[in-house]
Write a structure and sequence with these properties.
heterodimer, A: mainly alpha, MetI-like fold, 76% helix, 0% strand, B: MetI-like fold, 12 helices, disordered N terminus
Chain lengths: 293, 293
């Protein structure tokens, strides 16, 4: 506190502190605490609020526990998000390495422009393009049948569609951090390893990957969080059999009108992401300050 | 030269690098490069083909956006775009929200970066974790939490609530960008100006703000793009308002026509032009700054 008023004076410093307070309290902390408060209370008509039935209970969380179909969707969301994370990593790592160590400056900037265009456009349009491709009468089925790889069209909407759409939608969030990390590696280290007799696999395992650790951690953290919290991809590319946890939350709010239970599901999703973030940071032995820059 | 490359005509090949190479091992040597080329082609296809199909479907006469079967080339859907009152209204709604988000997140994000960089040690780490936490929170959860709290205060779903909810995490982006620039700020300049009798507000206005200008311009773009493309958070706080992403997604469920593709095409061309312009300006600046940087 003192440092700030000393540096900027009472008026300016006070103004800064007020703005930060408005953000952290009004838009971050208190809303999340309100969500927790809602999650722990039963869903009552306005007249009964504060009455004998009102109070803190775990009912809304137990509902999730007691309904295997919802619990199953939760587990599937976790598992699929992890799969999306691994898939995007596998797709991105070679490109990130090429961008960071091999390509010429001109190639780098050309590819970066090509990469940014789909991601400056909005997420819904990215999903929409996959919606068109994967349609039953769409180009993918037409091409595969034409080439003789399929004897009849396949219904792609569902788990496969969601996975493809998500990997596509969040590619850049994995690629950019890894590219940033790889590009800071001195190429002489790779040459040295090669001169000492290391093969390609070993160079990546012992030199490049450890160096890119921070970028990989950042990419994984963001991709997992975005996938687990996505509503667009499952809504557009899913089928009734591939429901996502966020769709359950939406339904509690706007279909069933049970905001308390929706809040409990929201808290569950938040805790899941918190555990995933902390777990991954620990796994990669990276601290938050270097992971999110 | 020709003899060297054909072992049959010249059984005793000159041994280069102390190692005999059979044809099989030479093919093996090229295999990784070939595999990478294939993979690179696959990557570019995966990245760009969806967008090309999205764009191409704009010109198909078919009333559902697709490229198979091709029912004839037309520009009717582009013409229809500029007559679509609903879509233009959605565009306006998104623009108002984005303007509001910029108006809030630039000053608050700057204040947050200044407060953060004035602190040291443990306080700074805790504050940092708190300030980046919205980036690690799923968008759906931010939407719910904002809705639950601000409705209690009397602000229900709509433009104002969308601005607040989006600002909650977009401020984090602004904070990070400004903080990155601040790392290169020379604090002795402040002290010198104060020593020469400038007031603290004058120092802020004439030294710190001009120094931060590039970061603020960048942050302004990021804030706009993030707000404009947001779907997951806005879905929960929009009330009866229909910003562009919500509008497109609702079209997908009920009555999708290539008008949406026409919109995608316009956005794609705009962003491509913007990205290239940005890259050109950056390169010019780098050349102007001298070959050393």
């Amino acid at each position: 506190m003192n440092e700030i008023t000393q540096r900027f004076g009472k008026h300016l410093g006070g103004c800064f502190i007020l703005l930060v307070l408005f953000w952290l309290a009004g838009l971050v902390l208190v809303p999340n605490l309100t969500m927790l408060d809602f999650a722990l209370r039963p869903n009552l008509p306005a007249a009964q609020l504060g009455g004998p039935k009102d109070g803190y209970l775990l009912d809304n969380f137990l509902y999730l526990w007691n309904h295997p179909s919802h619990g199953w969707i939760f587990l599937k969301t976790v598992w699929s998000s992890a799969l999306v994370t691994v898939l995007t990593f596998v797709i991105c790592y070679p490109i990130a390495y090429w961008l960071g160590q091999v390509s010429t400056p001109r190639q780098t900037s050309a590819l970066l422009v090509l990469l940014t265009v789909p991601y400056l456009m909005n997420e819904v349009l990215r999903g929409l393009s996959w919606y068109i491709i994967l349609a039953f009468d769409g180009p993918l089925n037409a091409a595969l049948v034409h080439l003789g790889l399929l004897s009849e069209p396949v219904r792609w909407y569902g788990d496969g569609g969601v996975l493809a759409g998500m990997a596509y939608a969040y590619l850049l969030f994995m690629l950019l951090p890894i590219y940033n990390a790889v590009s800071t590696l001195d190429h002489a280290q790779i040459d040295a390893a090669r001169d000492l007799g290391a093969g390609t696999v070993r160079i990546h395992r012992r030199v490049v990957l450890p160096h890119a650790k921070v970028g990989i951690a950042t990419g994984c953290v963001f991709t997992f969080m975005l996938a687990a919290g996505s509503y667009m991809a499952p809504a557009l590319l899913g089928a009734p059999g591939s429901r996502w946890f966020t769709q359950l939350i939406y339904d509690w709010f706007f279909e069933s009108g049970n905001w308390n239970r929706g809040a409990a599901y929201g808290v569950t999703l938040l805790v899941l992401c918190l555990i995933a973030v902390l777990g991954m940071l620990r796994l990669f032995q990276v601290n938050l300050t270097s992971a999110v820059k | 030269m020709t003899n060297v490359s054909t072992p049959a005509s010249n059984p005793v090949r000159p041994v280069s690098a102390g190692r005999l190479k059979t044809r099989a091992s030479r093919v093996l040597d090229r295999l990784p490069r070939l595999a990478f080329r294939l993979y690179f082609a696959f990557f570019l296809t995966y990245l760009l083909l969806p967008l090309l199909i999205l764009a191409a479907a704009t010109f198909n006469r078919s009333s559902f956006p697709t490229i198979v079967p091709w029912l004839g080339t037309t520009d009717m859907w582009i013409a229809a775009l500029f007559r679509d009152a609903e879509m233009l209204k959605a565009l306006g709604s998104s623009a108002v929200i984005a303007a509001g988000v910029i108006a809030i997140s630039l000053p608050v994000g700057t204040a947050a970066a200044l407060v953060l960089t004035s602190l040291h040690g443990r306080a700074r780490n805790i504050l940092y974790a708190l300030m980046v936490s919205p980036l690690l929170t799923p968008g759906v959860v931010i939407g719910i939490a904002t809705l639950l709290f601000w409705r209690k205060v009397g602000i229900g779903g709509g433009v104002a609530l969308s601005i607040l909810a989006q600002s909650s995490f977009i401020i984090s982006f602004v904070m990070l960008m400004v903080a990155a620039r601040l790392q290169r700020f020379d604090r002795t300049m402040e002290d010198a100006a104060l020593g020469l009798g400038a007031s603290r507000i004058y120092v802020f206005r004439r030294i710190l703000l001009p120094f931060l200008r590039p970061a603020l311009v960048g942050a302004c773009f990021i804030a706009f793009l993030q707000s404009f493309e947001n779907y997951n958070t806005t879905l929960f706080v929009r009330g009866t308002e229909t910003p562009l992403t919500i509008f497109i997604a609702s079209k997908v469920r009920a009555g999708l026509t290539p008008v949406v593709n026409a919109l995608g095409l316009v956005m794609m061309i705009t962003t491509l032009a913007g990205a290239i312009a940005w890259e050109v300006i950056r390169r010019r600046k780098r050349i102007a700054a001298g070959p050393a940087t």
